[in-house]
Amino acid sequence: MTKRLMTIVACGLLLAAIAAAQYTPWLYWTFLPQAQMDEIVGEASGETAWNTIAEINAFNRERFSEEFKGNFLETQVISRKLKSYGLAGIDIVTYPGGPAWVAVKGELWETKPGRQKIASIRDMLPMLASGSATADVTGELIWVGRGTPKEITDAKVIGKIVVTEGALMMAYGAASQQGALGVISISMSRPYFDPLQMPWSGIAQRRRPGGAAPGQPEAPAPPAGQPAQPGVAAGQTPPPAPPTGFAFQLPVREGDILKRRLLANEKITVRAQVESKTETADLENVVAHIPGTDPAAGEIILSAHLFEGFQKQGANDNISGSATILEVARILNTLVAEGRLPRPKRTIRFIWGPEFSGIGEWVKANREIMERTLCNINMDMVGEWLTKNKAYFCLMRTTYGNPHYINDVMENYYRYVGEGSRERIQNRSGAAGVPVRIVAPTGADEPFAYSIETHYGASDHEVFNDWGVGVPGIMMIAWPDQWYHTSGDTADKADPTQLRRAAVIGAAGAYTVATADAAGAETIAGEIASNATRRIGHTLAVAMEALNVATTETFADDSAYARGIIEAAVVNEKETLASVLELAPGAASLSGHVTRLAKAVDGVGAAAIAALDAHRAGVARKLGVKALPLALSDLEKRAAKIVPRPTAKVRAGGYREYQKLMTALPASARTDFPVAGKGLALANPGEVQLLVNGRHSALDIKKMLDAQNERRSTLQAVINYLEILKLAGLVEW
Ligand SMILES: [Zn+2]
To answer: What is the mean pLDDT of residues 314-331?
Structure first.
C-alpha cells in the first residue's frame, strides 16, 4: 500500500467514524419496557426457526404426487408446528389454483465418443428447466456462444441440441423456432462467486395476472418455474401453448468442460430422456392467530410467502420468512400463555401462502378482517447469513401513499438490535463485548448490518398496501442474496443468529402495535417527530443538491422541485404522526399531543425551507441569475384546486378488484388523457391512487411523487392520470 493510498484510507475511516459517532454509545432504547424485551429476546430461538427451514427446504427436493392430492409439505409442517405451539384459529384455506409443471425424469448422457452422464435431476433438480416436454432423443451438440438469434441462425441448429453460455430463455426461443431438439445452458450471473449454483430457469411462457392500469407497469411477474399466479389470472388470460422441447442447465464448473470440448471441434452426441407431467396445484394458505382482549381495538397481521414455486424452491426465499413469522407466533403465544407478557388487546394474526396469488385471494375473501387490521409486517428472505451474502438486513418502508407509524416502530427495533450488536470503542469493556447480545448458540457471532430503506414492492406487503385493501405494510428483507433464485438457496446459507434477530424485531414490533394505548401512542408519536427531523434533513440535502447542479436554464424548475420535495416530506411526516390516532380513538390527550407535534414538524419544515432559500440565493449569485420568489404557473394554480377523493368503488371488491374498472375503460381514455412515456415516475406502480385521500391536491401529488422518485413527473401527466381514475368512477372531485 502506498503512503498516499494510506492517507486516503485513513481519511475514509475518519469520516466513517465521525458518521458512526452520532450514535450515543450508552443508550439503546425500545418502545417496550426492558423487562418485556428480555422475555422476547430470551424466548427467541434462531435454531428453532433454522430447523423449520431445514425440515422444509434443507435441499431442493422432489415434489411428490400426494402433495398435489393432499397438502404440500410446507403446509403440513407449518400447521403441525402451529398446533404444537397452541395457536388459535389454525386453518388451511385453499383456493383453486392452476397447472404446475413437475419433473419426473431428466437424464442427459453422452453416447459418442464416450459414455458418461452429463446431467441428471437425481444430482440437481434445477438441471432440467421447468416447462420441458417429455422427450427421448439423440442428437449432436452444437456450440452457439451467447445464443443470440444471429449465432443460432449461423450455426444451423436443425436436429441438433444447442449449447450456450447465454440466457436459457432467449436461446431456447430462437433455437426451437429453427428446429433444434433442445438447449443446454451454462449461464450464471455469479460464476466466480459460486461456480456450482444454477438459476431456477423455465422455458414455458409465463402468464401475467389481470391487465395493468394505464401508465402502470404490469403487476410483478411470478418467479420462474411458478405456475403464474393461477388464482389471480383465472379465466382472464388463456394459457400459452406449452413448449414442445426441453432445456438442461449445467453449473459453470461442469459446463465449462463441455464448452472447451465443443470449442475444440469435438463431435459429441448425447441422448436426452425427459419426462414431465402437469399437476393441479391448489393455492394453500395457512392462518392462525393470538386472540387479543378487545375485538374492537383492531388487529395486526404478519405475512410470509410459503411457496416460491412448486418445482422452484428456496430456503431463504422464502422458507426463512415463513419460519421466522412462525417463530414470532411461538414466542408471543408462549409468553402470553405463560403469563410472562400480558395478553395484548389487539389480535395478532399470521398468514402463510403462495406469494400474491394465495395471500391475495385470502385478503380478498376476508375484507371485514382487513377493515379492522391496522398494519402488516411482511417477511421475505430474512434468514440469510449476512456476511456470507455480503448483505444488509433492510427495512423497506411504506410509501407516502400509506403513511404509518409501523415504519418508526420497526425502525426502533432494527436500531436496537443493530446498534446494540456493535462493539464500540467506548464500551468495549463489558463481558459480552456488545451492549445487546442476541446471538444463537450455533449461529454467527457478528455485528448486525441493518439499513432503513425507502419502499420496495414485489412481495406480499403489496397485497396489503393495495388501494383496494388499505392496510399499510412494510417488508423485512436481507439484500443482496448471493444465491437468490438459484439451486444454491438451501438451508446452509441461513444463519440461526440472523433468524433470532429477525424474530426478535418482528415479535417486538408486532407486540408494540398490539398493546399500544394512548400513552404508548404518544411515545411512538414522539419518536416519529424526532425521526422526522432526520428524514426532512435528508430531503433538504437532496433539495440542496438539485440546486448545486442547476444551470441557468434549469434554475427556476429546480427551485420549485427543491421546495416541493421538502413540502411533500413535511406532509408525509404529519400524516405519519396522525396515523397513531387509531391506537386510541377519541383520546383527547393523544390528539392534543399529535397536534402539537405536527406543529413542531411544520416548524422543522419551515426551518429546512429557510435553509434552502438561503442556499438558493447563493446558487443564484454563482449562476448570475435572479432568485425570484416562487410563483405558481396557471397549470399549477389549476392543479392546486383539484383535490380528488376515492369513491366507494375502490374498496368495494377488495384486493385489485378496482383494476377491472380501469381495464374496462375505452381506449379513448388513454388517448384523451395520455400518461404513457416519461410523464409519470412511479417506482411504486399504484402510488398516484394511494395519494388520493381527499386532502392532497393534484399539485401535492406531483410533489409527493417527485420526493419519492429519481425522475420527476410532469404535472399534466398527474392530472391526466387522475382524469382516467375519474372516468373509471374510482375518484371524484
Ligand atoms: Zn420471495
So the answer is: 98
Residues around ion ligand 1, judged by CB within 5 A, are 317-318, 380
State pTM to two decimals: 0.92
Q: How far is the CA of 7 from the centre of ligand 1 (A)?
A: 43
Å from CA of 130 to ligand 1 middle: 18
* Dihedral angle, C-alpha 195, 200, 201, 206, nearest 10 °: -160
How far is residue 11 from each of residues 8, 16, 22, 162, measured CA to CA in Å?
5, 9, 17, 53
Q: What is the pLDDT of residues 423-437, one digit of tens each?
A: 988 888 877 789 999
For ligand 1, the distance from its centroid to the CA atom of residue 377, given in whole angstroms, is 14
Angstrom distance (rounded) from CA 699 to CA 716: 10
Query: What grid cell was written down for 580?
Result: 397513531
Q: What is the mean pLDDT of residues 497-508?
A: 99
Ligand 1 mean position to 4 CA, how many Å?
Answer: 45
Q: Looking at residue 270, what is its pLDDT?
A: 98
Q: Name the pLDDT band for 206 (thresholds 50, 70, 90).
A: low
| Cα distance between the two ends of the chain | 66
pLDDT of residue 239: 56
Determine the distance separating the centroid of ligand 1 and the alpha carbon of 413, expressed in angstroms. 23
Number of other CB atoms surrounding residue 435 within 10 Å? 18
Spatial distance between the Cα atoms of 211 and 206, rounded to a whole number of angstroms: 14
Select from 297, 353, 281 the least CA-distant residue to 92. Answer: 353
